[in-house]
Amino acid sequence: MNQTIYLDNNATTRPAPEVIEVMQPFLHELWGNPSSMHDFGGRVRKHVEEARAQVAQLIGADASEILFTSCGTESNNTAIRGAVEAAGDRPHVITTRVEHPAVLEPCRWLKQQGCRLTELEVDHLGRLNPEDLSRQLSTGGRAVVSVMWANNETGVVYPVPQLAEMVKLAGGIMHTDAVQAAGKLPLDVRRVPVDLMTISGHKLHAPKGIGALYIRRGTRLRPLLLGGHQENGRRGGTENVPYIIGLGRACALAAQHMRAGTARMATLRDRLQAGILASCPDTQVNGDETRRLPNTLNISFHYVEGEAILYHLSDLGICASSGSACAAGSLEPSHVIRAMGVPFTAVHGSIRFSLSRYTTEAEIDYVLEHLPGIIQKLRAMSPFARPAG
């Protein structure tokens, strides 16, 4: 198979050619340490700050509120653990059952350290009920809340603006994992009172190994990494300059392409969804179809194992996933799909297709040409298939 049909963009994205190009000088000529006092280092520092401004512009922040990290996982850990440690009184940690493991695991670790932890439920469409958060906030005490802006598996978009207002009124700290939303949805921290927001470069066409954390001015946060004065004392370690430059350029491109790019992705996603539903019986879409990312389709095929579907798709050069890439290799069904109460006959047959601005109509048509035959073949072989008649 010579061609690759890449529909796994919620796992990682292709680095944009413009991003790779802008990184090159910082691997060859401008390789100095931006923290050095000499002019060579100072020239590099200037470009780092320009990239910081580009990231800030994507979300409506001030450049001084952007902290560069190594990835979304580090940003999430820095935000959640840093806010809890800065609070100093073991605050009430509130999150949801459908968060990425990079949020769930630090929250559960904090529970082991003595914090009270609440994981909010979702309904059958993966939606949160804001009243559930309101009830938890009304129990008293300082709260640190982490709710993702959009779900990485289903694409469901959560009412973060409304939730952030509730947390602010209760005197709590609000973090949102915006890894999947950044570059696909308009984000503006001037209008949404989140205190902390996570971004990951490789989800918006920058390389792997670079992320950012928005920290609203005045938010108290204990650094996760100690050992240097870099990033205004908020994160020790020499800055990863080429990747920072790449992230800045990727954010600028995301802002440039957002309106037209997301509309086009949504059109192609809807074409894929309609084609699958029309050609594959006993199939259901997982998640709220009215409030979801424009690039994401999570769909369950009853009576079929998702891993088997993925293997057959891969043989044809089609890349998709059964959920979060961080859970790859696990035989357990997705915690997100289970939290939504997807029926037993479908919970193992969940497939996520996630598009990018590089996805083409021809690629969608190729999937629709071959997928129905795969499902038909697997159902014929499955002992769990619905009997005929």
The side-by-side strand order for the widest beta sheet comes to 2-8-7-6-5-3-4
Please write the CATH class name of the largest domain. Answer: Alpha Beta
Number of domains: 2
Number of helices: 13
What do the pLDDT scores average to? 93
CATH structural architecture of the largest domain: 3-Layer(aba) Sandwich
- Note the run of SSEs as H and E: EHHHEHEHEHEHEEEHHEEHEHHEH
* Strands, total number: 12
**CATH fold-type name of the largest domain:** Aspartate Aminotransferase, domain 2
| CATH level-4 homologous superfamily of the largest domain | Type I PLP-dependent aspartate aminotransferase-like (Major domain)
**Main sheet properties:** 7 strands, mixed
Which parts are unreliable, with pLDDT below 50 for 5 consecutive residues or more? none
Helix content class: 40-55%
Indicate the proportion of strand residues. 5-15%
Q: Pairing-aware structural class of the strands and helices? A: alpha/beta
Overview of this protein structure:
- Helix content is 41%, strand content 13%.
- It is of the alpha/beta class.
- The strands form three sheets. A seven-stranded mixed β-sheet has the order 2-8-7-6-5-3-4, with helices on both faces. It has a three-stranded antiparallel β-sheet with strand order 9-10-12. It has a two-stranded parallel sheet with strand order 1-11.
- Strand 5 (143-146), helix 7 (160-169) and strand 6 (173-177) form a beta-alpha-beta unit.
